[in-house]
Specification:
The chain is built from 25 helices and 19 strands. By secondary structure, it is an alpha+beta fold. The strands form five sheets. A five-stranded parallel beta sheet has the order 2-3-4-1-5, sandwiched between helices. The chain has a four-stranded antiparallel beta sheet with strand order 9-19-18-17. A four-stranded antiparallel beta sheet has the order 10-11-12-13, with no helix packed on it. The chain starts with about 20 loop residues before the first helix and ends with a helix. The relative contact order is 0.07.
Length: about 600
């Protein structure tokens, strides 16, 4: 579909989704056409409509959406040229900077192994500029109140802005836009601040107010007073929630909260306490409806259940429903509302978070580590963030069940934040943190996490606690032995299995055959290496165990072997935080392992059975 350029066509209409922002849309269209600066940052105060503008622009870039819009009535300068492919779009919401970087790297510089390689290859990219859009940078991170947004700017956006092979469009908070503008050569970066001329659009704000309110006079006054589109929306919802009551004119999100509480005949503190569990949770967290009253009551120190049950009018402008009929959930309506509430709690945030975390802990029934397996999913997902801010996280980290069953990405972010602020970790939590990169991989079951935690604890010399799940193996022993390049099973004259490790550089004082070190496979006792005693298992002995190994650089799988070959799924999978130095099987079914720290032996639960 082509856009007419006949100057006689003057009856232009606003973008049907954006409802205005023509100046900003022109700048974005120039960026997509390649005639504008190489990088454009869309910013503005929270609630100014950054996300809505970006969504509306991407509708014009995506052929499937573009065909549904009557382009002939739009300003041609706001429409990207026809025939261009849609830009690659990446959403930062709920992601760490590292996750976002690798998400982008998989598309732009596939094959990079480290963050440094990604940055180097981006800087060396050729002149064919790839259009890249990064949305929702203000919602990056998995914890409330974290510093992930700034890390996204440093680790992701800045390398993309400076990459010669990338044309970047990103939606960012104002502070990050200002920071990037100081780092980027002049003329290469355009900042579109929706609160500043020429990008602000008071006419569109008035149109929104008139469309949202049934009182035209009030709509005009509201558009003059309100900060942005979100404030207009909150005021309109307040009018619908309490029809007939005098309409206040909020100048910001805080005013909208206060005026609505007043219209409902409730004090602002009660409204704030009711919304606290939603506002202080992780970004975009949806709270199960049955948990709302207990958490709000914990914040208030009294039963708010009746107020909540009767508070539909009070809460309507500030929450939205999620989930389904069987599992109803609620979330805060916009991050700016959560930010306002957090600011109002001020120094009391720690105590409020402590109360919320304590109330969530009270829902975890039973004894022992297995109680966390049956905890409400919301508790496993969000407790780490509340406990971190409430000062309770260190105590929870001594519970192996919590370490295994909590949502691993949020838990890792919380533990790293605790360490960064000087917090002390229990020994088992230090092992968990060392292995956290493995645990945040997708699809890792709690049983496998438990097996890796058990093995890691043995390597670290930490007492292995009761883990509450069936382990895929038991680590018989582990020995520090750096530099191992291969391990093999050996069968001695007495029929006992041994682990023989090969190190090209065994170091001073090595005895026996150069480069070889042997250990009893069952006990870990170091053996004198006798060349005549180093007998590898025969093919018949290996076949009799009924198991086979397949290995990669940092993993191994153990398979059951029956007549006809390998069958079914692997009976065990082992993952390593670094390259494996070698692996083998003994005739009695023990797994021999070498990694960067040393050698170890595992007895598989399947083999033992």
């Amino acid at each position: 579909m082509t856009v007419p350029t006949d100057p006689s066509v003057t009856d232009r209409q606003p973008h049907p989704f954006v409802g205005g922002r023509a100046a900003a849309l022109r700048a974005l269209a120039d960026w997509r056409a390649g005639t504008g600066p190489g990088a454009v940052l869309v910013t503005g105060s929270p609630g100014s409509g950054r996300s809505r503008l970006l969504t509306g622009f991407l509708m014009l870039c995506e052929p499937g959406f573009r065909d549904r819009i009557e382009l002939a009535v739009l300003d041609p300068a706001t429409v990207p040229p026809e025939g261009l492919p849609a830009p690659q779009v990446f959403g930062a919401a709920g992601l760490t900077a590292s996750q976002l970087l690798w998400l982008v790297a998989d598309e732009l510089v596939a094959g990079a192994d480290r963050s440094e390689d990604v940055h180097r290859r981006l800087a060396e990219a050729g002149p064919m500029a790839v259009p890249v859009v990064i949305a929702d940078c203000d919602r990056a991170g998995v914890l409330p109140g974290g510093g992930e947004v700034a890390r996204v700017t440093t680790e992701v956006l800045l390398p993309l802005v400076l990459a010669p092979g990338v044309r970047l469009l990103a939606e960012v908070p104002r502070a990050e836009a200002e920071r990037l503008a100081k780092e980027v050569p002049g003329g290469h970066l355009l900042v579109v601040d929706l609160d500043q001329d020429p990008w602000r659009d008071p006419a569109a704000l008035l149109l929104q107010a008139e469309h949202s309110l049934e009182q035209p006079g009030a709509a005009g006054r509201l558009a003059q007073v309100a900060d942005n589109a979100l404030v207009v929306r909150l005021a309109a919802w307040s009018a619908r929630a309490v029809p007939g009551a005098p309409l206040g004119l909020p100048g910001g999100v805080g005013d909208a909260l206060d005026l609505h509480a007043e219209r409902c005949g409730t004090d602002e503190l009660t409204l704030r306490r009711l919304l606290a569990p939603l506002a202080l949770a992780g970004p975009d967290a949806a709270l199960p409806l049955e948990l709302w009253a207990p958490l709000a009551s914990a914040v208030a120190g009294k039963d708010l259940g009746p107020v909540l049950a009767a508070g539909q009018q009070l809460l309507l402008p500030f929450v939205e429903l999620a989930g389904d009929e069987q599992h109803p959930e609620v979330r805060i309506v916009h991050p700016a509302v959560a930010d306002e509430l957090r600011e109002r709690f001020g120094g009391a945030v720690r105590e409020v978070q402590r109360r919320i975390a304590t109330a969530l802990l009270a829902t975890v029934r039973g004894e022992g580590p297995e109680r966390w397996r049956d905890a409400v999913p919301y508790v496993r997902e969000q407790l780490a963030g509340h406990a971190l801010e409430g000062g309770l996280l260190a105590g929870l980290l001594a519970e192996p069940g919590f370490l295994l069953h909590a949502e691993q990405l949020r838990l890792r972010a919380a533990v790293e934040e605790l360490v960064a602020t000087g917090g002390e970790l229990p020994p088992i939590a230090r092992t968990w943190l060392r292995l956290a990169p493995l645990f945040t991989r997708q699809g890792l079951r709690p049983e496998l996490r438990a097996g890796l935690l058990e093995h890691g604890a043995r390597q670290d010399g930490v007492e292995v606690p009761e883990l509450g799940v069936g382990l895929p193996w038991n680590t018989l022993w582990t020995r520090p032995l750096p530099g191992v390049r291969a391990v093999t099973a050996s069968v001695g004259p007495d029929g006992r299995s041994a682990l023989v490790a090969y190190r090209p550089d065994p170091g001073p004082g090595a005895e026996g055959i150069p480069g070889l070190t042997a250990f009893d496979a069952l006990t870990g006792e170091q053996l004198v290496v006798d060349p005549d005693a180093l007998v590898r298992p025969s093919e018949e002995q290996r076949a009799a165990v009924g198991l086979a190994l397949s290995t990669g650089e940092d993993y191994l799988r153990v398979w059951a072997v029956q007549e006809g070959g390998v069958t079914g799924d692997p009976v065990a999978v082992f993952l390593s935080a670094g390259p494996l130095g070698g692996a083998d099987l003994t005739p009695d079914g023990l797994v021999l392992l070498a990694d960067a720290t040393g050698v170890s032996v595992l007895r598989l639960a399947a083999a033992a059975a």
